Automatic annotation (TrEMBL):
Residues 55-86 are annotated as: Disordered. InterPro entries: Ribosomal_uL4 (IPR002136), Ribosomal_uL4-like (IPR013005), Ribosomal_uL4_dom_sf (IPR023574). HAMAP family: Ribosomal_uL4_B (MF_01328_B). One of its GO terms (biological process) is translation. NCBIfam families: rplD_bact (TIGR03953). One of its GO terms (cellular component) is ribosome. GO terms for molecular function: rRNA binding; structural constituent of ribosome. Belongs to the universal ribosomal protein uL4 family. SUPFAM superfamilies: Ribosomal protein L4. This is Large ribosomal subunit protein uL4c. Keywords: Plastid, Ribonucleoprotein, Ribosomal protein, RNA-binding, rRNA-binding.
Length: 221
């Protein structure tokens, strides 16, 4: 069962590192009873998509050789053999070995968005909504972006810090890629595993509104 849940937040002001006056609110669709099931299902499917599925073994029909019977059927005292490609032989084919396959399974868009919104709402205690300062970064600069982040979180809290923005630009990507333990994602590619793994979630207001709009305005096709 999905419910419209209000998420109250304050925007972190980077100019003086203080909270802007007045709390804001955004509506998220969250799951009431089967939240653990949905989140677990989404994470399992996300892990399955990472599997390459390229393991491959040759069967007895694919192994080279084996066209001639090694020895006659009777009279040699040896065990019967019809082909050198038999799985019983060294260098022969493999019985029931792994073959290339696709491990990923289908997850409904509504289920994914519901699980994502629920995980985000449950992680509201570690969520920090920041002022959109990305327009001020005109060129790649790790020092500049790091000085901005220091106003929000301490250096000791950079372990598993997730930074969610509305859109990842090349300038921003080059600026943060050298910061250890900081993961940069866009609101469109945000995954549930990243939300649960992070100790601190930095998110711009545009990214939060985009997540809310996508989840609430989808009616299916």
């Amino acid at each position: 069962m999905a419910l419209n849940t209000a998420l109250h937040y304050n925007i972190r002001n980077l100019n003086d590192a203080s909270l802007e006056n007045g709390a804001k609110c955004v509506t998220l669709k969250t799951s009431l009873f089967n939240s653990k099931y949905l989140i677990h299902k989404a994470i399992v499917l996300q892990n399955l998509r990472k599997r390459q599925g390229t393991a491959s073994c040759k069967t007895r029909s694919e192994v080279q050789g084996g066209g001639k019977k090694p020895w006659k059927q009777k009279g040699t005292g040896r065990a019967r053999a019809g082909s050198s490609t038999s799985p019983l032989w060294k260098g022969g084919g493999v019985s029931f070995g792994p073959q290339p396959r696709i491990y990923s399974k289908k997850l409904n868009f509504r289920e994914r968005q519901l699980a994502l919104s629920t995980a985000l709402y449950n992680s509201s205690s570690k969520l920090i909504i920041v002022q959109d300062f990305l327009d001020t970064i005109t060129k790649p600069s790790t020092k500049e972006i790091l000085n901005q982040l220091k106003k929000l979180v301490s250096i000791q809290q950079y372990n598993h810090t997730l930074f969610v923005v509305h859109e990842v630009s090349d300038t921003l990507n080059l600026s943060v890629r050298n910061i250890k333990h900081l993961t940069l994602v866009s609101s469109e590619t945000l995954g549930i595993r990243e939300i649960l793994r992070a100790k601190t979630i930095l998110m711009t207001e545009k990214a939060l509104i985009n997540i809310s709009n996508v989840a609430n305005n989808y009616h299916g096709h």
